[in-house]
Amino acid sequence: MLTKTTETAIQILVFLGLYDEREPVSPNDLARHLKTSPSYTAKITGMLVKADLLKAVRGSRGGVVLARAPQEITLLAVVEACQGRILGDYCDGAGEIHQVCAYHQAMKEAHDAILGVMQKWTIADLVKKPLPSEEIRSSVNCRMAVVCCSHSLG
User: Fold this and answer.
1) Are the C-beta atoms of residues 77 and 67 closer than 8 Å to each other?
2) Per CATH, is 4-85+122-148 categorized as 1.10.10.10?
3) Domain boundaries, the chain
4) How far apart are CA 2 and CA 79, in angstroms?
5) CB hemisphere CA count around 38 (13 angstroms)
6) What confidence tens digit (pLDDT) does each residue in 7-25 have?
7) Cα separations (Å) of 140 from 1, 7, 55, 98, 143?
């Protein structure tokens, strides 16, 4: 459901949410810490800047910083920044949902549920618990591990 670009965007935002300093972080530093290519990371940070989720800071010590507080950045905003609006695919030309076929009614419910969950969860929620519980951590492949294992720039 989420593209690699969207997952990497979430990793970037969680990394910046965990990063204590308010100094800008360059896309090259983000790429190094998240183990992604610099050009791919720059592309993603550009998408996030365009969506007003990151702010670009120019200059020799430039980079990106969060444009909003982590609790104001929803997963839905990240998905829409990277993948576009999540649109439902329903019967063409129908006016009311009760008029479409049962399959499309079910898909509308699924669509609404997905949007509700993605609107509810924020980057701040992910920063609060960026890794699985310690007792299962070694037995799961967590996509956020790269963020937490490298959240220090020092």
Assistant:
1) no
2) yes
3) 4-85+122-148
4) 7
5) 7
6) 999 999 999 999 866 789 9
7) 20, 17, 33, 42, 9
Provide the CA 26 distance to its chain's centre, in angstroms. Answer: 18
Residue 92, pLDDT score: 65
Handedness of CA 107, 113, 119, 121 (dihedral sign): negative
Q: What is the pLDDT of residues 39-59, one digit of tens each?
A: 999 999 999 999 999 999 998
DSSP state of 74: B
pTM assigned to the model: 0.87
Tokens at residue 15, please? 């990394």
Residues 46 and 77 sit within 8 Å (Cβ to Cβ): no
